[in-house]
Amino acid sequence: MGPRNALLPFESAHFSTGARIALRVCMLIEAEFNAITHQILSAAIEVHRILGPGLLESTYTPCLLYELHARNLRYVTQRAIPLIYKSVDLDEAYRVDLIVEDVVVVEVKSVAATLPVHHAQTLTYMRLTNCPAGLVINFNVSRLMA
Questions:
Q1: Distance, CA of 39 to CA of 68 (rounded, Å)
Q2: Are 105 and 126 in contact (CB under 8 A)?
Q3: pLDDT per position as a tens digit, 31-66
Q4: What does the angle CA 5 – CA 11 – CA 12 come to, to the nearest 5 degrees?
Protein backbone atom coordinates (compact mmCIF):
# COMPACT_ATOMS: atom_id res chain seq x y z
CA MET A 1 0.00 0.00 0.00
CA GLY A 2 1.04 3.55 -0.60
CA PRO A 3 1.86 6.14 2.02
CA ARG A 4 -0.91 7.06 4.46
CA ASN A 5 -1.19 10.61 3.15
CA ALA A 6 -1.66 9.53 -0.49
CA LEU A 7 -4.88 10.84 -2.04
CA LEU A 8 -7.64 8.37 -2.66
CA PRO A 9 -9.20 8.62 -6.14
CA PHE A 10 -12.23 10.50 -4.83
CA GLU A 11 -10.08 13.05 -3.00
CA SER A 12 -8.91 14.71 -6.20
CA ALA A 13 -10.04 18.15 -7.29
CA HIS A 14 -12.66 16.55 -9.55
CA PHE A 15 -14.91 15.74 -6.58
CA SER A 16 -16.80 18.31 -4.57
CA THR A 17 -16.28 18.38 -0.82
CA GLY A 18 -19.76 16.95 -0.28
CA ALA A 19 -19.08 14.06 -2.65
CA ARG A 20 -15.77 13.31 -0.92
CA ILE A 21 -17.45 13.28 2.49
CA ALA A 22 -20.36 11.15 1.26
CA LEU A 23 -18.02 8.63 -0.36
CA ARG A 24 -15.79 8.48 2.70
CA VAL A 25 -18.81 7.92 5.01
CA CYS A 26 -20.16 5.25 2.66
CA MET A 27 -16.80 3.48 2.65
CA LEU A 28 -16.68 3.55 6.46
CA ILE A 29 -20.19 2.14 6.75
CA GLU A 30 -19.44 -0.63 4.28
CA ALA A 31 -16.10 -1.50 5.87
CA GLU A 32 -17.68 -2.11 9.28
CA PHE A 33 -19.70 -5.10 8.03
CA ASN A 34 -17.62 -6.31 5.10
CA ALA A 35 -16.16 -9.29 6.97
CA ILE A 36 -19.57 -10.59 8.05
CA THR A 37 -21.36 -9.97 4.77
CA HIS A 38 -18.43 -11.52 2.89
CA GLN A 39 -18.72 -14.69 4.98
CA ILE A 40 -22.50 -14.82 4.49
CA LEU A 41 -22.16 -14.41 0.73
CA SER A 42 -19.39 -17.03 0.62
CA ALA A 43 -21.66 -19.44 2.47
CA ALA A 44 -24.52 -18.73 0.05
CA ILE A 45 -22.26 -19.21 -2.96
CA GLU A 46 -21.11 -22.57 -1.57
CA VAL A 47 -24.72 -23.70 -1.12
CA HIS A 48 -25.62 -22.55 -4.63
CA ARG A 49 -22.51 -24.19 -6.10
CA ILE A 50 -23.61 -27.56 -4.70
CA LEU A 51 -27.40 -27.37 -5.09
CA GLY A 52 -27.82 -25.04 -8.06
CA PRO A 53 -31.00 -23.05 -8.79
CA GLY A 54 -34.61 -24.17 -8.93
CA LEU A 55 -35.30 -25.43 -5.41
CA LEU A 56 -37.50 -23.97 -2.69
CA GLU A 57 -36.31 -21.47 -0.09
CA SER A 58 -37.02 -24.13 2.53
CA THR A 59 -34.30 -26.29 0.93
CA TYR A 60 -31.66 -23.58 0.72
CA THR A 61 -32.14 -22.19 4.23
CA PRO A 62 -30.93 -25.18 6.30
CA CYS A 63 -27.96 -25.58 3.94
CA LEU A 64 -27.10 -21.90 4.41
CA LEU A 65 -27.39 -22.34 8.18
CA TYR A 66 -25.00 -25.29 7.99
CA GLU A 67 -22.47 -23.14 6.13
CA LEU A 68 -22.85 -20.23 8.56
CA HIS A 69 -22.28 -22.60 11.48
CA ALA A 70 -19.19 -23.99 9.74
CA ARG A 71 -17.89 -20.40 9.57
CA ASN A 72 -18.57 -19.87 13.31
CA LEU A 73 -21.16 -17.17 12.68
CA ARG A 74 -23.92 -16.66 15.22
CA TYR A 75 -27.45 -16.43 13.83
CA VAL A 76 -31.11 -16.59 14.73
CA THR A 77 -33.84 -17.78 12.39
CA GLN A 78 -37.45 -16.75 12.05
CA ARG A 79 -37.20 -14.04 14.71
CA ALA A 80 -40.66 -12.64 15.35
CA ILE A 81 -40.96 -8.89 14.95
CA PRO A 82 -44.00 -7.55 16.79
CA LEU A 83 -46.21 -5.19 14.85
CA ILE A 84 -47.25 -2.08 16.77
CA TYR A 85 -49.61 0.47 15.30
CA LYS A 86 -50.14 3.72 17.21
CA SER A 87 -49.21 2.10 20.53
CA VAL A 88 -51.49 -0.88 19.84
CA ASP A 89 -49.74 -4.23 19.85
CA LEU A 90 -51.33 -6.15 16.98
CA ASP A 91 -51.61 -9.92 17.07
CA GLU A 92 -49.70 -10.08 13.80
CA ALA A 93 -45.94 -10.44 13.75
CA TYR A 94 -43.49 -10.57 10.91
CA ARG A 95 -40.70 -13.13 10.82
CA VAL A 96 -37.20 -12.34 9.62
CA ASP A 97 -35.60 -15.25 7.77
CA LEU A 98 -32.21 -14.81 9.37
CA ILE A 99 -30.20 -12.37 11.47
CA VAL A 100 -26.45 -12.97 11.51
CA GLU A 101 -24.15 -11.71 14.28
CA ASP A 102 -26.93 -9.37 15.46
CA VAL A 103 -26.11 -6.94 12.63
CA VAL A 104 -27.10 -8.40 9.25
CA VAL A 105 -30.67 -9.20 8.19
CA VAL A 106 -30.68 -11.93 5.53
CA GLU A 107 -33.76 -12.59 3.41
CA VAL A 108 -33.53 -15.88 1.54
CA LYS A 109 -35.39 -15.98 -1.78
CA SER A 110 -35.84 -18.44 -4.61
CA VAL A 111 -37.75 -16.39 -7.15
CA ALA A 112 -37.49 -15.66 -10.88
CA ALA A 113 -36.33 -12.13 -10.06
CA THR A 114 -36.07 -10.03 -6.94
CA LEU A 115 -38.51 -7.17 -6.91
CA PRO A 116 -38.36 -3.78 -5.23
CA VAL A 117 -40.78 -5.13 -2.59
CA HIS A 118 -38.17 -7.71 -1.52
CA HIS A 119 -35.64 -4.97 -0.92
CA ALA A 120 -38.23 -2.79 0.81
CA GLN A 121 -39.12 -5.72 3.08
CA THR A 122 -35.45 -6.15 4.01
CA LEU A 123 -35.07 -2.43 4.71
CA THR A 124 -38.16 -2.55 6.93
CA TYR A 125 -36.79 -5.56 8.82
CA MET A 126 -33.49 -3.73 9.26
CA ARG A 127 -35.31 -0.74 10.73
CA LEU A 128 -37.51 -2.85 13.03
CA THR A 129 -34.59 -4.96 14.31
CA ASN A 130 -32.06 -2.11 14.45
CA CYS A 131 -29.73 -4.12 12.23
CA PRO A 132 -27.52 -1.79 10.20
CA ALA A 133 -26.98 -4.16 7.25
CA GLY A 134 -29.14 -6.42 5.12
CA LEU A 135 -28.84 -8.92 2.27
CA VAL A 136 -31.42 -10.32 -0.13
CA ILE A 137 -30.05 -13.62 -1.44
CA ASN A 138 -31.89 -15.10 -4.41
CA PHE A 139 -30.85 -18.70 -5.03
CA ASN A 140 -32.94 -19.03 -8.19
CA VAL A 141 -30.27 -17.63 -10.51
CA SER A 142 -27.90 -19.42 -12.85
CA ARG A 143 -24.85 -18.01 -11.07
CA LEU A 144 -24.81 -16.59 -7.56
CA MET A 145 -22.12 -13.96 -7.22
CA ALA A 146 -21.00 -11.73 -4.38
A1: 8
A2: yes
A3: 577 889 999 999 999 999 999 999 999 999 999 999
A4: 110
